[in-house]
Design goal:
It holds the Pfam family Ammonium_transp. By secondary structure, the chain is mainly α. It is built from 17 helices and six strands. The strands form three sheets. Strands 1-2 form a two-stranded antiparallel sheet. A two-stranded antiparallel ribbon has the order 3-4. Strands 5-6 form a two-stranded antiparallel ribbon.
Length: about 500
């Protein structure tokens, strides 16, 4: 617990860094207009104004979502479901002992399902409607307003291009899968010893007070069409989430998903305690075959996770797609090389873990860096996360069963920080939007790597501290109400039988 407190203190120091503001400057000048004073002009003016208004209404019809973008987003949503159930479930299930296989499958599947329901009830509203800098409002409770009765059609959601929209219901479905998999990731940290009911209650609390606020802080803004001129920039920025206002870059969830979940998992590993026999008894994975299948499904599904976060079927989606491809492949090779150098042999478990490490690290950078940057991020992620599940795990002393923090925490932090480096157009990155009025990108000579990395570090620090505090309180509440851990005899027998009354394999 002292190590956990020390880690929180370190996170608090990060918050002290002075993050550079994300500059948004736009010159605006109003042309001088000559006024006619004649009686004829005065008589004609109202009619001319009415005609101009009518012409404007005809010229600017209500935006119609692009069918290609909509189709791509629906496919992306399906891919994220694939990477969760069955992908993550099989990846985790193969890593535990056979007596706990079904318990992990249940925790992943039921957690995901529960969060989707909560998302529809209130989660989407808290994350993606206007409220304050830290949390949204209640305008979309139970998806109220998704169908626009006045217009007789579905409400639209903004993308990252002016005048381009997708149906808001599709955006809400896509983001529901993100919330679901984030919570499901956490269960790997305390697998094989937590009460099923305790896991579900914790997820309700953590989702409400950690996931939804962090998602709002990082991803909520008013959309590009809200930036109609320089005079409204400050007002529109003030309505966005706190971390978005800082200018932090997180394409698909390095902070919102991976760091957020990893910190919660680490807190859980500390507070629930180590498994009985940990460090003394053999606790080898019972099926690396299933783990391999799970990691492959994760890789496939991650293309929807990352490329879908472009919200359009465009060049940035293609960039995220390619970066997800190459960074993951590079991380597999790096982990395998590192393992061979360290242990003398490369393992299937290591290759599968390397794939996940690369996927995690490229997530915040997917559409924000060039292909060269993605390769470097992948290589560094393979080596860094290998250290995370070996050296760092020993230093922390927690029984993080499936190395959630070692992979998702280390990989997420690494990817978030390196996004600030390789987003630079001087290093092959696409840069970032510096002016949403014109959608103008920051020029190479104006891009500051140091400033952006500091902003990224501050975003990481806020996420670490926020998630840790919410997790500590939530686990404590659950422990007082239900109890976090199963009795010793049930743990020894296995959670499949004792918690669910069934076994994964007939003997």
């Amino acid at each position: 617990m002292r190590k956990l407190i020390a880690s929180l203190a370190l996170g608090l120091t990060v918050l002290g860094f002075a993050g550079a503001a994300f500059a948004q400057e736009a010159a605006a000048s109003a042309p001088a207009v000559a006024a006619a004073a004649s009686e004829v002009a005065a008589a004609v003016a109202p009619a001319a104004s009415a005609a101009a208004d009518a012409a404007s209404a005809v010229a600017a019809p209500a935006p119609v979502p692009n069918k290609g973008d909509t189709a791509w987003m629906m496919v992306s949503t399906l891919l994220v479901i694939l990477m969760t159930v069955p992908g993550l479930a099989l990846f985790y299930g193969g890593l535990v002992r056979s007596k706990n296989m079904l318990s992990v499958l249940m925790q992943v599947m039921v957690t995901f399902s529960m969060i989707v329901v909560l998302w529809v009830i209130y989660g989407y509203s808290l994350a993606f409607t206007e409220g304050n800098a830290f949390i949204g409002g209640f305008d979309r409770l139970f998806m109220k307003g998704i169908w626009d009765n006045a217009a007789g059609t579905f409400a639209n959601a903004a993308t990252f291009s002016k005048g381009v929209y997708i149906p808001e219901i599709v955006f809400a479905a896509f983001q529901a899968t993100f919330a679901g998999i984030t919570c499901a990731l956490i269960v790997g940290a305390f697998a094989e010893r937590a009460r099923f009911s305790a896991v579900l209650l914790f997820m309700v609390l953590w989702f409400t007070f950690s996931y939804a606020p962090i998602a709002h802080m990082v991803w909520f803004w008013m959309g590009p069409d809200a930036y109609t001129g320089a005079e409204v920039v400050d007002a529109m920025n003030a309505k966005a989430g706190y971390i978005w206002q800082m200018g932090a870059l997180d394409f698909a969830g390095g902070t919102v998903v991976h760091i957020n979940a990893a910190v919660a998992g680490l807190v859980g590993a500390f507070m629930i305690g180590k498994r009985i026999g940990y460090g003394k008894e053999a606790m080898a994975p019972h099926s690396l075959t299933l783990t391999m299948v799970g990691s492959a499904l994760l890789w496939v599904g991650w293309f929807g996770f990352n490329a879908g976060s472009a919200l359009e079927a465009n060049g940035f989606a293609a960039l995220a797609f390619m970066n997800t491809f190459v960074a993951t492949a590079a991380a597999v090779l790096a982990w395998s090389v590192g393992e061979a150098l360290h242990k003398g042999k490369a393992s299937m478990l290591g290759a599968a873990s390397g794939a996940v490490a690369g996927l995690v690290a490229i997530t915040p950078a997917a559409g924000n860096v060039g292909i060269g940057g993605a390769l470097i991020i992948g290589v560094l992620a393979g080596f860094a996360c290998l250290w995370g599940v070996t050296g760092l795990k020993k230093l922390l002393g927690a029984d993080d069963t499936l190395d959630v923090f070692g992979v998702h925490g280390v990989g997420g932090i690494l990817g978030a920080l390196l996004t600030g480096v390789f987003n630079s157009p001087n290093l092959g990155g696409p840069s970032a939007v510096g002016d949403w009025v014109t959608v103008g990108m920051i020029a190479p000579d104006a891009y500051s790597i140091a400033s952006q990395v500091l902003v990224q570090a501050k975003a990481v620090g806020i996420t670490v501290v926020w998630s840790a505090i919410v997790s500590i309180i939530s686990f404590k509440v659950v422990d007082l109400v239900i109890g976090l851990r199963v009795p010793e005899d049930e743990e020894r027998e296995g959670l499949d039988i004792t918690s669910h009354g069934e076994t994964a394999y007939n003997k």
